[in-house]
Specification:
The protein is an alpha+beta fold. It has two domains: 3-208 and 387-394, Ribosomal Protein S5, domain 2 (2-Layer Sandwich), CATH 3.30.230; 215-384, GHMP kinase, C-terminal domain (Alpha-Beta Plaits). It has eleven helices and 13 strands. It has a six-stranded mixed sheet, sandwiched between helices. A four-stranded antiparallel sheet has the order 10-11-9-12. β4 (74-79) and β5 (82-89) form a beta hairpin. The protein is globular and about 65 Å long. Bound molecules: alpha-D-galactopyranose.
Length: 395
């Protein structure tokens, strides 16, 4: 029953399919196929750019890129979901105002080259099952899959966290989104069956087992496309950094929950900064408590923390929207749902819910019916296991 919420192409099917499509397009077999998953953040939202702690999982939705190196410096990329071919030479990969999707590829190629890695021309073919604009990090997967494919086909190795940082720089400089490190780290460093408990200041992480056989991660995509480059994300980030400056800390993560009331009384903080500080301090506390609750198998406790996270993102941080609030409120009332919150950057995109496996299909159905009655369109609902970070295969 619950499998009906899981039907999509597996990584294996995608990898096999992309090799055939590559050959049809370019007349030869690819040398390598790289795979990068999307990610869902379980908790620890809007804290990564303040040195906080996050808890994402890789999802079973993937971007795949088949490649074959060329003798010259031409890059040609075709994609199963877009008509036409993107073509450029390696002399043309510097930052420019190009708005097409090749900016993610160019950004990573430039980063690799600037870091001293060999970059050659190549032919590529791509496909993806990660919904775009759903808060599931399709752009981080795009960057990661490019990095893995190019490193793979040129026989080079790179530390995964270094590659994540390089991808983050590409996102800043080529896509214009001042994101934190969570998404790129998640799509590259998550371990199968685990959540990635990442300290975004020290850039160290632990694999936190998602060891709850009766429970599933459910993703509910509102279908409202989020646009992080539109300014609100940058405004929150700037207010947080200003608040840290006023409080004399490197990052908001250094304020303990025990000092919160005293900190908020600081006269140098305006109303906006107070909200940002309160969200960050309480969210970091919730994330630690969630890790502990999950380790102890206390799913309903973890679920309540997810619900509180949603409230904080809606009321203090103001990055939710009517559709996400409706999904969270609807899901939270259903039997067998431990908790539900918006996930990712917000302003649209998806919610994540912790759902008991026995009722996952009926929960998905109830949310779909209620959402469609209110907003007129069906949300995209699916279950995912905590998957593995990206990889590359030779073909
Ligand atoms: C986006 C950004 C991440 C993170 C989240 C919010 O996904 O890319 O770096 O800030 O929003 O937690």
């Amino acid at each position: 029953m619950t499998d009906s919420l899981k039907t999509t192409r597996t990584a294996e099917i995608l990898v096999n399919g992309i090799a055939e499509q590559f050959e049809r397009q370019w007349g030869q077999a690819p040398s390598h196929v790289a795979v990068a998953p999307g990610r869902v953040n379980v908790i620890g939202e809007h804290v990564d750019y303040n040195g906080g702690w996050v808890l994402p999982a890789a999802i079973e939705r993937y971007m795949v890129m088949a490649v074959r190196p060329r003798e010259d410096d031409v890059a040609r990329v075709a994609d199963a979901n877009f008509a036409g071919v993107i073509e450029f030479t390696l002399n043309e990969i510097e930052r420019d105002s190009t708005k097409d999707w090749s900016r993610y590829i160019r950004g990573v190629l430039a980063g690799l080259r600037n870091a001293g890695y060999k970059v050659t021309g190549f032919d590529a073919y791509m496909d993806s099952t990660i919904p775009v604009g759903a808060g599931l990090s399709s752009s981080a997967a795009f960057e990661a899959v490019t990095g893995l494919a190019v490193l793979g086909m040129t026989g080079q190795e790179m530390d995964r966290f270094e590659l994540a940082k390089l991808c983050q720089t590409a996102e800043h400089e080529y896509a214009g989104v001042p994101c934190g490190i969570m998404d790129q780290a998640a799509v590259l460093n998550c371990g199968e069956g685990n959540l990635l408990f990442l300290d975004c200041e020290s850039e160290t992480f632990q694999q936190a087992p998602f060891d709850a056989p009766e429970w599933r991660l459910m993703i509910i995509n509102s279908g409202v496309a989020h646009e992080l480059a539109d300014g609100e994300y940058g405004k929150r980030r700037a207010a947080c950094h200003k608040a840290a400056e006023v409080l004399g800390v490197k990052n908001l993560r250094h304020i303990s929950i025990n000092d919160l009331d005293g900190t908020l009384a600081n006269e140098g903080l305006d109303e906006e900064m107070v909200r940002c500080v309160r969200h960050n301090v309480t969210e970091n506390d919730r994330t630690h408590k969630t890790v502990q609750a999950l380790a102890e198998g206390k799913i309903s406790k973890a679920g309540k923390l997810l619900n509180q996270s949603h409230d904080s993102l809606r009321d203090d941080y103001r990055v939710s929207c009517e559709e996400l609030d409706y999904i969270a409120a609807t899901a939270q009332q259903l039997e067998g749902v431990a908790g539900c919150r918006m996930t990712g950057g917000g302003f649209g995109g998806s919610c994540i819910a912790l759902v008991h496996k026995d009722v996952a299909a009926s929960v998905g159905g109830s949310i779909t019916i209620a959402y469609q009655a209110k907003f007129g369109n069906r949300p995209g609902v699916f279950l995912t296991a905590a998957g593995r970070g990206g990889w590359v295969e030779t073909t």
